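== Sequence and structure of one protein ==
=== Format: two labelled lines per protein ===
==== Data for this protein ====
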Amino acid sequence: MDNPSIITQVTNPKEEEILSCSQDKVSQCNLSLKKQRSRSIFSTLFCCFRDYNVESPSPNGTSVLPPLVEENGGLQKPPAKYLLPEMTISDYGKKCVVIDLDETLVHSSFKPISNADFIVPVEIDGTIHQVYVLKRPHVDKFLQRMGDLFECVLFTASLAKYADPVADLLDRWGVFTARLFRESCVFHRGNYVKDLSRLGRELSKVVID
């Protein structure tokens, strides 16, 4: 990691800005830079914020979020359906494990990395940029074993244009039964939040990394 205080670092050659997380609370990442006109276009790709316990569960076992606000200030509409499809027969009876991508399975950077496992081209504002991706040690064995034991769902606050091709290269065994990206998060108080009550699974049987 380039800096111990940084979870995801993205560098623009002309304009160096970073999307950082505090060490003592990895689950929270301040996205206020999105509202600054001078922020780097690259920071829109990644987000390491993972706030899972937004509110205490209600007595019936579901999470309750206060009114959600879009980035433009408007209210978000509640989802018409759950994020996940019905559980497959092969996964029936298994717990659902929700796994993040950045700084959990991989580390990605726009800085060239000599030993990168993957180099993923990403189009931003009409220009192709190379994303250098390092796999976490033993991630292959981890994914295969998790796939044997659980229904595995990839849930990342990063954009699909980056995260989906990375997942294609990473998950060669089809471990993830579903992939959820930033559009599946809710925007709450300036942060992207993964609301597990929207998954369509019994919360007592959901585990998150």
Remarks:
- The CA atoms of residues 6 and 20 lie 5 Å apart.
- DSSP finds two helices and nine strands in the chain.
- The helical segments are 139-149, 160-170.
- The first strand starts at residue 96 and ends at 99.
